[in-house]
Design brief:
heterotrimer, A alpha/beta (396), B alpha+beta (108), C alpha/beta (293), A: 396 residues, alpha/beta, Rossmann fold, 13 helices, 16 strands, B: alpha+beta, Alpha-Beta Plaits, two-stranded antiparallel ribbon
């Protein structure tokens, strides 16, 4: 049903339709509205779930870990500092192969403290073993949560999924969204049938100590599943299309006018909406520009990126995060996709922008295109304010 | 170890349709370690003379390897007994003695 | 105890004479097979579940060092959702470090939210699994590897964190202390706790022959002396009121200190022994432990 709603509310609606049994979260801007809306739904009797209002994010993740281990569908949401606080539980959940679904309302990381959007939080947990998909707009954010449960609970996957949506921009933005009806959701998403669970009728031990003789195989298994999930994402996407009509292709990337492009921008999340406007403007002027939007950041679709961009001569990767002391996170993956291959761009320049919620405007995108020259640049920050860079400290 | 790798490779080639990897253990599949091999100093000898079936030896054993029902039927599973001596300490009738490990003719 | 499918199996790798192994087995036997257990990282978790072995005949989960109370909260919520909570007991457990220090937040949250969960703290008075380091529940003047006795120090300079009182302050229906030296009392308290709805906390004093440095067969003597000197009072709080305590004919603390290597450095230090006697005397008065004449 189409509604003009705040992004957070749309998420709450889809989570309600997925009918989790245990919801646990700790308040952090900008995730708060999602959990508040869910709490109201439970309180009104619209959603039959146990809401556990915990004393920290570490416990929120632990509660959903326990709930999932008992064979119940669960949900949690967080951002930034909260995600970092639950980091060890996040790794634990993936290592224990529990199909938890989490919303990460992307927000910048302290210090300095900043509540606005960038992607540093979820990007910093890329090694955890969670599948990470990034939404461009609120329709995707809604659809991706449904897809997340379906994918996570697939017995061939059994990995947790993080749906990333830009904080404030998407969570607090009002858009017209088609929130799927319960009937169709039930058709697409079967009841959760756990592979293993804590049950007194059939006791098991979970979370054992694995010494050097056993640990590696457990990690290898997750790596293999991640590789296979590149294919499962496509599978789930075509199932989704057949029920709901919306086509996310392979759920790995979106190729926007890249076919004959000479210059392509690679980016992730809501900034792609802005970039698409620039692409349209430029194309109207006859310029051959395109956008490759990364949807699945983990597992990273190296082969797909290669296939999409091998004939492009210049690529600008726009990261909304940094890896301090090294090349930017998405840029590194893009470069890796081409290394040792026969074809590939002559230039892969990496740009960093939008940190701490600084707006990436049409002008910012033009600046990126201007800086995309024959000379490769790495982690080139855009939109910096020179007057702030003059501040110095001399201890007096 | 190589057997595991062979199994893994085989399932990879077979087009796996299940999740794999070491993770959970069912209690019935676990045999436990034969910790009886830890005993060096002594083992408990149940004299079966003055036993009142108070079951304190059963309660106190850290291994849970003492069993029995009526008086003078209590015995230790020496596959697991580590020789800590607590059953001998707790027996109110002093009906359990710790004897040196070598000398005991006993079970097995 | 069922021999065919025991809730706690032999063949685990605890040290010989481990007080915690005894207590853990008694706890789960008292709770019975319709119990799910969440465990913190520590000796108990390590010696019972080294892949591919497990000593647990009940559903059991270990996640991290500090979060069994939160994991248990999630399991309890899931059981309520499934309509199974009424027939399933929920226990979460850990050592003194994981309960009173790093896990205090999760424990406090669980108690405050009123989950129907029994928390068992196995108090061997240090971080034993990592090598006998000092914890918040390490008693005054104890020699541990991070509060070692030496020329300038008599060991741990702080008193024992009053975890039972902290838990009681959360307004929960049942708090008790117990000891591996009094196994029947422990069993009774666990059964009682399981029968009460709401959050419960039981703290069990469990000697560690390795960390406390005493012979394995002295575990009972040491545990009993701790109680009989007044240093480890056994009591029960019911709905906030002190309802029960084990009365003693107090023995001088030096008998307890003599029994273990970790207090050896105090034996020629009458000033420090006096301070410890004061702690015992304070307990005896506070909990009214002395047997009436």
């Amino acid at each position: 049903m189409k509604e003009f709603v705040e992004g957070s509310h749309a998420i709450a609606e889809i989570i309600k339709a997925c009918q989790p049994g245990v919801i646990s979260a700790y308040p952090i801007t900008p995730q708060t509205h999602i959990v508040e809306d869910l709490a109201q739904m439970v309180s009104n009797g619209e959603l039959k779930a146990q809401v556990v209002n915990v004393e920290s994010e570490h416990s929120a993740a632990s509660v959903v870990l326990g709930g999932s281990a008992t064979g119940v569908r669960v949900y949690t949401a967080t951002s930034s500092q909260g995600l970092f606080y639950m980091q060890e539980v996040v790794f634990n959940i993936a290592g224990m192969r529990l199909p938890v679904v989490m919303t990460c309302a992307n927000r910048a990381i302290s210090a300095p403290i900043n509540i606005w959007n960038d992607q540093q939080d979820s990007i910093s947990l890329r090694d955890a073993g969670w599948i990470q998909i990034y939404a461009e707009d609120n329709q995707e954010a809604v659809d991706f949560h449904l897809i997340a449960y379906r994918l996570a609970e697939d017995k061939r996957v059994m990995l947790p999924v993080m749906v990333c949506m830009d904080g404030f921009i998407l969570t607090h933005g009002m858009e017209t969204v088609d929130v799927p009806e319960q009937e169709k959701v039930d058709k697409f998403l079967p009841k959760y049938n756990p592979l293993y669970k804590l049950d007194t009728a059939a006791p098991i031990s979970m979370g054992l100590l694995a010494d050097p003789d056993y640990y590696m195989e457990a990690r290898f298994a997750i790596q293999e599943t991640m590789k296979e999930s590149l294919g499962y994402l496509s599978e789930v996407s075509s199932e989704f299309k057949s029920v709901f009509g919306r086509d996310y292709k392979d759920l790995l990337v979106e190729e926007y006018q890249t076919k004959d492009a000479e210059k392509v921008i690679v980016a992730m999340g809501s900034v792609c909406g802005t970039i698409k406007e620039v692409i349209d403007e430029q194309r109207a002027k006859g310029k051959k520009i395109g956008l490759l939007r990364i949807i699945s950041f983990r597992p990273f679709p190296y082969a797909r990126v290669y296939e999409a961009l091998k004939d492009v001569s210049r690529i600008a990767v726009l990261d909304k995060s940094v890896s301090l002391g090294a090349y930017a996170p998405i840029a590194v993956e893009i470069k890796a996709a081409f290394y040792g291959k026969k074809k590939g761009p002559k230039v892969i320049s990496s740009f960093v922008g939008g940190l701490g919620g600084r707006d990436i405007t049409l002008e910012s995108v033009y600046e990126v295109l201007r800086r995309l020259t024959a000379k490769e640049v790495n982690s080139d920050f855009i939109d910096l304010k020179p007057e702030l860079l003059k501040e110095e400290y001399d201890g007096k | 170890m190589s057997l595991l790798l062979i199994k893994l490779k085989a399932s990879l080639l077979a087009g796996r349709d299940k999740m794999f990897g070491p993770l959970i253990v069912k209690p019935k599949d676990s045999k436990g370690d034969k910790t009886g091999s830890w005993r060096t100093q002594g083992r408990p000898e149940y004299l079966h003379k003055n036993c009142i079936a108070c079951r304190m030896c059963v309660m106190i054993c850290p291994e849970g390897c003492v069993s029995g029902k009526e008086k003078n039927t209590f015995a230790v599973d020496f596959n697991y007994c580590k020789g800590c001596g607590l059953c001998a300490e707790i027996c109110p009738k002093k009906d359990i003695e710790m004897v040196p490990e070598e000398q005991e003719g006993g079970e097995k | 105890m069922m021999e065919n499918s025991p809730v706690f199996k032999s063949g685990h790798t605890a040290c010989a004479g481990c007080g915690q192994a005894i207590a853990a087995r008694l706890v789960i036997e008292a709770a019975g097979p319709n119990t799910i257990v969440a465990n913190n990282t520590g000796c108990l978790e390590v010696f019972t579940t080294k892949y591919p072995e497990t000593a647990w005949g009940v559903p059991w989960i270990h996640s991290l060092f500090e979060n069994s109370a939160a994991v248990a909260s999630g399991i309890e919520a899931a059981l309520i959702y499934l309509g199974k909570k009424d027939v399933t007991n929920m226990i979460c457990q850990g050592g003194d470090g994981s309960s009173g220090d790093i896990g205090l937040q999760a424990l406090s949250g669980m108690l405050e939210r009123g989950h129907d969960i029994l928390y068992v703290c196995y108090d061997n008075e240090a971080y034993m699994n990592t090598g006998v380091q000092r914890s918040g529940l390490t008693p005054f003047d104890t020699n541990t590897t991070t509060s070692p006795a030496g020329a300038c120090s008599s060991g741990n300079v702080r008193p024992k964190k009053a975890m039972p009182e902290i838990c009681n302050a959360h307004g929960i229906p049942y708090v008790a202390t117990a000891s591996a030296g009094f196994p029947q009392d422990l069993t009774r308290k666990v059964k009682k706790a399981i029968s009460i709805k709401g959050p419960k906390y039981i703290q069990v004093h469990v000697p560690c022959p390795l960390g406390w440095r005493h012979e394995t067969n002295q575990m009972l003597t040491v545990a009993r002396l701790a109680v009989e000197t007044g240093l480890y009072p056994l009591f029960e709080y019911e709905n906030g009121i002190l309802a029960n305590r084990k009365q003693i004919v107090p023995k001088p603390v030096v008998e307890y200190l003599k029994s273990q290597g970790r207090f050896k450095h105090l034996l020629n230090n009458p000033e420090e022994i006096k301070k410890i006697q004061e702690i015992a005397d304070h307990n005896i008065q506070k909990y009214n432990l002395k047997v009436e004449a």
